[in-house]
Amino acid sequence: MSGAEDQGAAAAGRLAAAREAAGLFELGGRPAGLAAYGDGHINESYALSVEGPGAPARRLLLQRINQAVFRDPEALMGNLLRVTRHIRAKLEEDGHPEPERRCLSLVPARDGRAFARDAEGGYWRAYRFIEDSRSSPAASHPAAARGLGAAVGSFQAMLADLPGPRLAETIPRFHDASARFAAFEEAAAEDRAGRAASVRREIAFFEERGEGLGRIAGALASGSLRERITHNDAKADNLLVDAATGEPLCLVDLDTVMPGAAAYDFGDLARTVSATSPEDRAEGMGLELGLFAALAEGYASEAASFLSGPERESLPWGARIIAVEQGLRFLADHLDGDTYYRIARPGQNLDRARASIELARSMEAQWDAMRGAVEAAFARS
Ligand code: ADP
Ligand code: GN1
Ligand code: MG
Q1: Residue ranges with strand state E in the chain
Q2: Residues 82 and 97 in one domain
């Protein structure tokens, strides 16, 4: 079989497994159309439509959890249930319109659990599909950036009083950028896919930036920065907006919601919302300062009420560190032979790393202005 045929057969196998998994959920009707959905790099996502009886067709987002990445899916689902119930209750208390479009909600499995397991031990879950929505692209004007910043600030605010024990860490040391740097160095030294010689310049870029990467994780560990419940993957793609109006609806992809630093989410937002190119395109990539300032303003409008002084100061560092951290993760995966992030074409992880390099450079060049913009945003709110 050719490579393309192999890939086609693998995709068909995955779709067949998804069809079988659909039957494990309380669908309230007959499963009809099923198709791969979205641009996530980690899980397998499918749009599943369900028909009747006597009801209009509706859709679910069926997902297989990536177990190579998430080693304890049941702890993860425990987090997810607590978080979504808490947010939903808040939205209803505050009288938000359409609360069902502003928070993920799970469709139970037939045995009543929040997830189902297939015959191979795979973990599946099903969400109500948030219709008439799309993933947010990078912002094209300041008003859009302001709205996305406010959506993430409000997400953190809603979770600030989550009762109960500390959330499980679904991926330990997820944003410990020093640990990420060490893993990157190991990947460069091991050179498992024989690619290191062809990316010397990219490796050198990140090697020059190892120092100082531990600034936020270190401050969290020492207690000088307050631990919060954060999303930890607050990139534009995980923010749904209304397809017609562009109004922010909700953050999805809650697998990494766990204890973290506020600056992690601000950083992931900055690297995607205020960037001038898509994540995998180095050409034209940079930080658009006007969008960044608007993002900071929107975020501050929600977060000023609970963020401490040191947390505010950490925000531009979050942007800068996360841009480098993402870049070295992408490059490490390229060096490992593309085993972690899903790629749509050969070389995509390298392109993602190269784009991160341009973005990090642009942030370094505009550093004083970035800090000024964050300060001004908090001074105004
Ligand atoms: P991954 O972990 O692979 O990134 P996500 O949970 O982010 O997977 O889902 C992939 C994409 O599917 C998201 O980026 C978003 O565009 C879309 N999506 C996720 N959940 C829903 C939902 N309940 N309704 C509509 N779209 C969704
Ligand atoms: C992954 O799953 P997705 O595509 O939303 C990754 C993030 C990275 C992001 C880069 C669990 O997010 O950490 O920032 O790709 N998620 C995990 O786009 O590693
Ligand atoms: Mg995602």
Answers
A1: 30-36, 44-51, 58-64, 106-107, 116-117, 123-128, 133-135, 228-230, 239-242, 248-251, 258-260
A2: yes
